[in-house]
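User: Fold this; tokens only.

Assistant: Input:
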Amino acid sequence: MYANYRQKGVFQRIDDAGLWAYVHAITRDRPDGQVELVYPPEWEARIYVTGILSDQSLWQALAGLIPPLFVMRGEQTDTFRESALHLIQKKLPTAAVVNLPQAGHLVPLEKPGEVCRLIGQFLSDHHPH
């Protein structure tokens, strides 16, 4: 699985240790010596089937969101369009929005230290000690 994922474009920005951690987190050993996903493949397929419907209700409710919102986008993602980021800013101007350079779709796996720092800063800014 690691070798297969290493060749895929979506995983290219993740370092080797991070990709190994990801593979170990989503798999388990079977008694027959094979490896399987820790969740059924049907579950992942369901995400893609229901995603569009969930997205529509999310956009409709966004302007009424009360808690502080932090949105992080990988600048080089091919799934979270920049136009969507601008729409978030238009519907909810109080949202904190970050467009992280040199990151793609899997931002937390690609830049874990930077993501941790940015989330920590957001939380500190909105919930001072």
